[in-house]
Amino acid sequence: MKKRIISPLIPEHQPLVIAGPCSAETEEQVLETAKALKQDQRVNVFRAGVWKPRTRPGSFEGNGSKALPWLQRVKTEVGLPVAIEVANVKHVYEALKAGIDILWIGARTSANPFAVQEIAEALAGVDIPVLVKNPVNPDVALWLGALERLEKKGIKDLGAIHRGVSQFEKSTLRNKPAWQMAIKFREEVPTIPIINDPSHITGNRELIGSIAQTALDLNFDGLMIETHPNPDEAWSDASQQVTPEQLSCILDQLIIRTDET
Ligand code: PEP
Ligand code: MN
């Protein structure tokens, strides 16, 4: 079965690469990252978190609406489509008003059917691609349900992001990959593209390449990799971000299968 390609904005391309910082910190950081990423033709979409769903209060929670014009500059001056996370109706309206190209629903929000339903209703009839991260808990039905809520409101360009699930035991990985969850998801909906997020699975930049390779070996359709000009100084998720140059090296080393098996 032929997969739908996410958004006419994005050329048919395997794998789809979404890159950019965990958080849009400053206008300079956003533009510097985007310009560097643009040098690598394999990067299709620029990502940045504007509203950040932090697990506990007291850490950087995003610049909010103030950062939207920075992303507009990435779109118009750098020439990359831009993607942000939305977690409520206000975020959706502001993102649409700012001309954001792609929205994604984060792992804490996709676990909440009320929030997803409100977002779906705010997007009713809007022609914009929406990606849904798997919920923080290993519940394939909840993940599928979130996509179904969007589909029922007429969203046609849907994609899934596999970012692993929370775990109680300490591990070398920040989140348990739960590959079976992604495999099951794909069995249920083979037409929805699935993108792997090795940044949030690993929490560790050294391990991103190997998780990304596993995803490609499993025929994932794309990768979302957090990228920052100075990762150690990042305001969120510092240990998992890579520089644009490191991202290019990771992509160089990946073995990309071209067959449709
Ligand atoms: C993110 O992509 O920066 C993020 C907050 O991810 P997740 O929802 O997977 O935790
Ligand atoms: Mn992050």
TrEMBL record:
Tell me the GO molecular function terms.
chorismate mutase activity; transferase activity
GO biological process per UniProt: chorismate metabolic process
EC number(s) reported in the record: 5.4.99.5
Source organism, top-level taxon: Bacteria
Keyword Transferase tagged: yes
Keyword vocabulary terms for this entry: Transferase
Record-given protein name: chorismate mutase
The organism that produces this protein has a lineage beginning with: Bacteria, Pseudomonadati, Bacteroidota, Flavobacteriia, Flavobacteriales
